[in-house]
Specification:
Blueprint: E1 3-8, H1 18-25, E2 29-37, H2 53-71, E3 78-82, H3 84-95, E4 99-103, H4 108-123, E5 127-131, H5 153-163, H6 211-224, H7 231-234, H8 248-252, H9 258-271, H10 276-298, H11 320-328, H12 334-346, H13 351-364, H14 369-379, H15 385-396, H16 410-417, H17 422-428
Parallel strand pairs: 1-2, 1-4, 2-3, 4-5
Helix pairs in contact: 3-4, 10-15, 12-13, 12-17, 14-15
Protein name: Cryptochrome DASH
GO molecular function, one term: deoxyribodipyrimidine photo-lyase activity
Organism: Flavobacterium sangjuense
């Protein structure tokens, strides 16, 4: 009996999941597991939790949905809690598994965890195979090696679009053979050391975790509302569910794959229309790929003050009061404050808002940009390590921006994107 473990991480889906498909093909039985890694719920050196309540709630919903979908195919999900390097080997021994399949990581801490787990499995003579499942373009299909990827996005995009092909998606398995798996036992937010979240009625969308919800969101945004056809014009909006795709949270947790979105988009283009807006979504997915490949290329440099450019930047001495006023939305700059209050109360903020509050922290307050990135890490429902740290480094002038310092004139931005002050009024007025 060749049994293998499928270790789910940020790939919480059955569609287009090469890890799962390969494991099924190479095994008589598979045992799907998810480990709530205690390291993901600790406080970082910047004083923020690695995972806050909004994302943890989304994660719990995503894991529950994955279990439900697995059970429909004759399997289920085993929940582990603790250190993966301790818990995964225990399961391997219990089920006498010959191999563990998992998604391949690129960021520093995740790579370290992967290496420690692999070393522990080696002691048990258990193989460990990782597969790349997070990007639109597969790293092996790029027209350059990782070390030669251009440091300017436009150069990367043009050559990739011209010379690389997007692989087709892996079909969802029809049936999964597993030993009997007991009912799921999920931790609560409290078990994870987190407080309960309240749903704010002003939130742009009630993000609910899971592949089922993610697929519904694609249907809604593409086929039911056809909002995708005007995405380029509306994407800088700040109020409402459909000014942008809002796929980011499901992408970050791996409930959706970028390729799946791409091929649904192609279907939409065939059925309705292809225009600049439909292309622009692919453009944004390419940025997401780019940050992931950059993280692979530069590793820990994305977490250093000088960034990938090794650039000495002047920052003020760390001032906890100034940082807290930014977090609380109490800077006195209404456009910044409205955005920060939205983030604090909902775990989400528009792309336009993110650029402005980041520029304000880096250029006006002149604080160490990594405190801002770490607060976003705690707070964002759609936090993705590569996109978050890549974007912060970019706007701090130490990342992939060829222009260097990207200063946003906040007053002008507010005038351009919130002319009638509807957004500021929404978030700055206290609700009873």
């Amino acid at each position: 009996m060749r049994r293998s473990i499928v270790w789910f991480k940020t790939d919480l889906r059955l569609h287009d999941n090469e890890t799962l498909v390969k494991a099924i093909a190479k095994s008589d039985e598979i045992i799907p597991v998810y480990c709530f890694d205690e390291a993901q719920f600790k406080v970082t050196e910047y004083g923020f939790k690695k995972t806050g309540s909004f994302r943890a709630q989304f994660l719990l919903e995503s894991v529950a949905d994955l279990d439900k979908n697995l059970r429909e195919l004759g399997s289920g999900l085993i929940i582990l809690k603790g250190k993966p390097e301790v818990e995964i080997p225990k399961i391997v021994q219990e089920y006498k598994a010959y191999k563990v399949f998992a998604k391949r990581e690129v960021a520093h801490e995740e790579k370290q965890t992967e290496a420690i787990v692999q070393a522990e499995l080696f002691k048990l003579r258990c193989e460990f195979e990782t597969l790349s499942t997070s990007t639109l373009y597969h790293a092996e299909d790029l027209p350059f090696s990782i070390k030669d990827i251009p440091d300017v996005f436009t150069n990367f995009r043009k050559k990739t679009e011209k010379d690389a092909v997007i692989r087709t998606v892996f079909q969802k398995p029809l049936r999964i053979k597993s030993p009997k798996i007991a009912e799921i036992n999920l931790p609560t937010l409290n078990d994870l050391g987190l407080g309960k979240i309240a749903i704010d009625s002003r939130a742009v969308l009630h993000f609910k975790g899971g592949e089922t919800e993610g697929l519904q969101r694609i249907q809604h945004y593409f086929f039911e509302t056809k909002s995708i056809s005007k995405y380029k014009e509306t994407r800088n909006g700040m109020i409402g569910a459909d000014y942008s795709s809002k796929f980011s949270a499901w992408l970050a947790m791996g409930c959706l794959s970028p390729r799946e979105i791409y091929f649904e988009l192609k279907k939409y283009e065939t059925q309705y229309e292809a225009n600049e807006s439909t292309y622009w979504l692919v453009f944004e997915l390419l940025w997401r790929d780019y940050f992931r490949f950059m993280m692979k290329k530069y590793r820990t440099k994305f977490f250093q003050l000088a960034g990938i450019q090794n650039k000495g930047i002047k920052v003020n001495k760390h001032n906890i009061q100034v940082l807290q006023s930014w977090i609380a939305g109490a800077t006195g700059v209404d456009f910044v404050d409205a955005n920060m209050i939205e983030l604090k109360l909902t775990g989400f903020m528009s792309n336009r808002g993110r650029q402005n509050v980041t520029s304000y922290l880096c250029n006006d307050l002149k604080l160490d940009w990594r405190y801002g990135a770490a607060y976003f890490e705690q707070q964002l429902i759609d936090y993705d390590v590569c996109s978050n740290w890549g974007n912060w480094a970019y706007l701090a002038g130490v990342g992939n921006d060829p222009r260097g310092n990207r200063y946003f004139n906040i007053e002008k931005q507010a005038q351009d994107y919130d002319k009638n002050e509807a957004y500021r009024n929404l978030w700055l007025n206290v609700i009873d």
